[in-house]
Design brief:
mainly alpha, 436 residues, Proton glutamate symport protein
Length: 436
């Protein structure tokens, strides 16, 4: 059995075990002793430990993989002076998809009206948002004062800036630069091998993560917020299976079905971890090895996308804004909704790398249109579950933009993209070998 099938089966098994554990814990059918054993030694014990170790291992790979891979890519790009063009295309596409995501969310929410008839939920809710950074702080904080500190904190934008600068300098340094570039290329191969080793244990990590998360998630809030939950989920699915495929077909002429099929391992990882950053090693490997995107493009677009491409979060903000406005009976009008689109799109870049970014962005949006921040406390009840789906949508967007940019730059291996039998270390634990 290939690794992709193992991961999918592990995901299904993890969800099933988590649901059973949650139901047993809620109903107390087996008595407090057995329920306590399941909670303490399995759900919050063995499964939690395995899941946390797996996440830690993924995060271990993120900074070295992004740094080294991006330095190698920047060296190659700098030779043709394509860094500025590549960055411009990538940023434009990420902003376009984010604007499309929040527009779709607003249209669906206004049509379905999830907050109508739910006014009773607005009673005792309270929420205290973290302060959002000023525009000047955002711009200054993109540039690192200490690259080692940026790597230690996992500040992806600062790492990207440092890696691009170093890659450019290496490409302009003659023979010393060639020797250093050779070292980084060799180091990149070693790091990719480390990712391959980690992928062998992926099914166990995915199972443990999902079993723990689903068991711990309380489903009490879902019946009350079912309409809101359903609208967000519908918008996420329409964006992932409608907007992205349409964009890919229009701008590259490539098959959306092939991309979605080949991105399944990365999507499962993103769903399991609920973290675009932790999924970077898997996304990068999948985009390069299964979609055929050249490393010089993927090493820039994937880490940047994991940092600023927040289509899933933008969808949540769009639906939440309409939901909260209907909840409190406040009509923000057409200009208010246009302000939401603009604010959420720009905030996706402006708040990149800030802890709790989703809630900070939502607080900024609500403040801009004069809606009470207390509404955030209401939607937080089901947000953890939706966050898993949002992350899968986000990394799908990263792969679509990477493929479109690579195609436009002549950096896409179309035979790899179109090869149904092509697998990678992400897919089956081996390097570029076909699975019968």
């Amino acid at each position: 059995m290939g690794l992709t099938k193992k991961i999918v089966l592990a995901m299904i098994a993890g969800i099933a075990v988590g649901l059973i554990s949650n139901l047993l814990n809620t109903s107390q059918v087996l008595g407090p002793g057995i329920t306590g054993f399941i909670n303490n030694y399995l759900t919050n014990g063995l499964f939690d430990i395995v899941g946390r170790i797996f996440i830690a291992s993924l995060k271990l790979m993120v900074v070295p993989l992004v740094l080294v891979s991006l330095i190698c890519g920047a060296c190659a790009l700098s030779e043709g002076s394509r860094v500025g063009v590549l960055a411009g295309k990538t940023l434009l596409l990420y902003l376009l998809t984010t604007a499309a995501a929040i527009t779709l969310a607003l249209v669906l929410a206004l049509a379905i009206q999830p907050g109508v008839g739910m006014e009773h939920l607005a009673g005792d809710a309270s929420f205290e948002p973290k302060a959002s950074p000023s525009l000047s702080e955002v711009i200054v904080n993109i540039f690192p004062t200490n690259p080692v500190d940026a790597m230690a904190k996992g500040n992806m934008l600062q790492i990207i800036v440092f890696a691009l600068l170093m890659g450019y300098a290496i490409s302009r340094s003659g023979k010393p630069g060639q020797r250093i570039a050779g070292f980084f290329n060799d180091l990149n191969e070693v790091i990719l091998r480390m990712v391959g080793v980690l992928m062998v244990f992926a099914p166990y990590g995915v199972f443990a993560l999902l079993a723990t998360k689903i068991a711990q998630l309380g489903f009490d809030a879902i019946p009350q917020l079912a309409k809101y939950f359903g609208v967000v989920l519908l918008a996420l699915l329409l964006h992932a299976l409608g907007v992205y495929p349409l964009l890919l077909k229009l701008l590259s002429g490539l098959s959306p079905l092939k991309l979605i099929k080949k991105m399944r391992p990365a999507m499962v990882f993103a769903f399991s971890t609920a973290s675009s950053a932790a999924t970077i090693p898997v996304t990068l490997q999948t985009v390069e090895k299964r979609l055929g995107v050249d490393n010089k493009v993927a090493s820039f677009t994937v880490p940047l996308g994991a940092t600023i491409n927040m289509d899933g979060t933008a969808i949540m903000q769009g639906v939440a804004t309409v939901f909260i406005s209907q909840l409190y009976g406040i009509d923000i009008g057409l200009m208010g909704y246009l302000t939401v689109i603009l604010t959420a799109t720009l905030a996706s870049i402006g708040t990149a790398g800030v802890p709790g970014v989703g809630l900070i962005m939502l607080a900024m949006v609500l403040q801009q249109v004069g809606l009470p921040l207390e509404g955030i406390a209401i939607v937080m009840g089901v947000d953890r579950l939706l966050d898993m789906v949002r992350t899968a949508v986000n990394i799908t967007g990263d792969s679509v933009v990477s493929t479109i940019v690579a195609k436009s730059e002549g950096a896409l291996n179309e035979s790899t993209f179109n090869d149904d039998n092509y697998n990678s270390v992400v897919a089956d634990g081996r390097d570029g070998t076909a699975t019968s």
